[in-house]
Every structure is written in C-alpha cells, then in structure tokens.
Specification:
Elements (H helix, E strand, L loop, with lengths): L1 H5 L3 H8 L7 H4 L7 E2 L2 E3 L5 E3 L3 E2 L10 H16 L1 H12 L8 H8 L2
Antiparallel strand pairs: 1-4, 2-3
Helix pairs in contact: 4-5
Length: about 110
C-alpha cells in the first residue's frame, strides 16, 4: 500500500516529527455523530494556513459508494493477501449467505 510505504520515507518521517495533533473542542462536540477535522499549517515565516472543516468519507451520513467500498477493501487487503485472494474474499463476503462452510472463508484468510 502506497501510504504505508511512504511512512518509511525519511522526508515524510522528518515532517511527521514536526507535526502536533490536537483535539479541537468545538469539533469534538459533534463526535460521535460526525468525525470532523481541519488542518492548520504554520509556515517558517509565521504565515498560518487553515483548511475548512472536513468530514471523513464513510461516516454514516456521508457513506461511501459501493465502488468506493470495494476499492477501499481491496486496497487494504491486497497487500496482505494478494490481489487474487482479496478479490476472492470480497466475492465470498458479498455472497456469504451462499457459503456452505465457513472454513472456505477462513481458508482464504489463513493462506498467504
């Protein structure tokens, strides 16, 4: 997964060392109904850049489309299982009511 690979990049690590994560009380009041966030960047010259408030895609009132769910599933499982097994697992989960034996599901998860 590209994101996980980038976490090992020395430049990304250097930037992460300079980050501070804080809870904004105003945004926290909306939780758990909404998971809101915003970003503030303070440049070396003191200039402050602020994002607008954003809500994560996938929250109950901002659901992912079926294609987005599929892509997210495959993106998260393929690095561990490989593309073919991830596709097979997704297909099995989507038709779980037709799986005769749950061992079929666990066989995909346990084999690498």
């Amino acid at each position: 997964m590209e994101v996980l690979e980038r976490l090992e990049d020395p430049e990304v690590c250097r930037l992460m060392d300079r980050m501070v994560v804080q809870v904004d009380d105003e945004l926290a009041e909306a939780f758990p109904e909404k998971a809101l966030s915003r970003v503030e960047i303070i440049a070396r010259d003191g200039t402050v850049y602020r994002s607008s408030t954003a809500q994560a895609a996938g929250d109950f009132d901002r659901p992912l489309s079926p294609e987005e769910k599929r892509n997210k599933f495959l993106e998260l499982t393929a690095p561990q299982l490989g593309d073919a097994k991830s596709e097979a697992l997704l297909e099995m989960i989507q038709h779980l009511e037709h799986v005769d034996n749950i061992r079929e599901l666990s066989a995909i998860l346990s084999s690498r």
